[in-house]
Amino acid sequence: MTVFLTADHHFGHSGIIGNAGRPFADVDEMDEVLIRNWNERIRPDSVVYYLGDFAHRCPPQRLRSIWERLTRPKAIHLVPGNHDDAATLALPWTSVERGILRMSANNRRFSLFHYALRTWPGIRRDAIHAYGHSHNRMPGFRNTLDVGVDAWGFVPASVEEVIRRAELLPEFDFGETDDEAEDDAPGAPGVRAP
């Protein structure tokens, strides 16, 4: 089983092509490439953590059609982003977490959220904060990085790839944090294992 982290496909959103500098002629080409890339990586035994902005300005019929064409993983958890409307939230996600989703995979802890944070649960225990929203416009650091498709060649990133990339990035000292009392061990409330 492979665990994937991804965000910001913006299915159906023509404006993101210019806004994020995506190399597609139009929204149809973009959606087709994103669907193909998803299907080449995601398997029925995969687990996907989707960190928001699945679609934007996408008519419900088109949204449903795109969803049906994607390889269905064993589980797909959504941490909603600012563009995830009622139609997106109504898709058959395994779960929808409207806050920071904490999970463990590959012997690492993760704090997942749509937006980049300056501090997060587990920061002092080497938890990686993965986020979307920024469309590869913010520099990553060893303990915090963008997992949106714009930062990963328009493919979902496996946890192994995220860890490898994080290890190559520079350290960044976020200053003092106060999460001493927090219990973020696997199995604690709010912490998921794939």
Q: How many helix segments?
A: 5
Largest sheet: 5 strands, mixed
How many distinct domains?
Answer: 1
Mean pLDDT: 92
Strand content: 15-25%
- If you compute it from the alpha carbons, what radius of gyration comes out, rounded to the nearest whole angstrom? 16 Å
The best one-word shape is globular
Unreliable residue stretches:
183-189
- Here the CATH topology equals Purple Acid Phosphatase, chain A, domain 2
The portion of residues assigned to helices is 10-25%
CATH superfamily grouping? Metallo-dependent phosphatases
Question: What do you see in this structure?
Answer:
InterPro entries: Calcineurin-like_PHP, Metallo-depent_PP-like. Residues 1-101 form the Calcineurin-like phosphoesterase domain. Residues 174-194 are annotated as: Disordered. GO terms for molecular function: hydrolase activity. With 194 residues, this protein is α/β, with parallel strands linked by helices. It has one domain (3-192): 4-Layer Sandwich (Purple Acid Phosphatase, chain A, domain 2), CATH 3.60.21. It contains five helices and ten strands; from the N terminus they run βααβαβαββββββαβ. Residues 183-189 have low confidence and may be disordered.
